[in-house]
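Hey,
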Amino acid sequence: MNTWKEQMEAGEVLLKTENLSRSFSTGGTMQHVLKNIDLKLYRGEFTVIMGASGAGKSTLLYALSGMDTPTLGTITFGEQVISKLDQDELAVFRRGHCGFVFQQIYLIDGMSVMDNVMSAGLLVSKDKKAVLTKAKELFAAVDISEETQKKFPSQISGGEAQRAGMVRALINSPEILFADEPTGALDSRSGRELLECLREVNEKGMATIVMVTHDAFTASYAKDVWLLSDGHMKCRLSKGRSQKEFYDRIADLQASLAGGSEDCRIENRMAGDENETL
């Protein structure tokens, strides 16, 4: 079996959408949140879906992860069309392939940090020793001490809790990790630490990552950024030589869209970068 890096070099598409649309009825009026989105996400990538509040980015994330069903269009994971699965089949799909990190930290306060992770791991594997070994390795990778692992979630900081949530998301070795505004409730230092952990997880080949955010600095940790506006995917920016230059380009594009521009073609200031306009 090829490694994730070999699969990436071969351009293996892990997740794709075709004509994806999602509408909701509110007070008798139809709201079209996502509109005919065609998207390809490649195995091993760290991709951000970025947009202002109300752009539809969380709705798209929930659809991609099988937590919501599109109104129209298809979503394919590998060779499996997950948009055709029923709710029970989607639950099996998520448990076998996906990990989740949310802005709200859903750790169970009546259990220790370690037990929160172990309980998730033992849902999939009955090998308690192997799950414990994996948990310890992941906790070490995100810099959570053995002492902290024994505490309850209410006894640790928000940053520690969010990193513990990331360990829980990774304990079953998901192919893809979905992160919904994971730094939104954290201070700047804790947010930066979490983003560094996410980048390291991706660079070590532990998971493909799809993250949504409205923040340019957060987005600059990714390899690719897709801009979502008014339910449409506007364009993609790819990272070049440095995170600082990538941040500047993302911020410039944000400002352009906020100013009412429909043209996503901004000056390419880095050799070798790719801007894809949709």
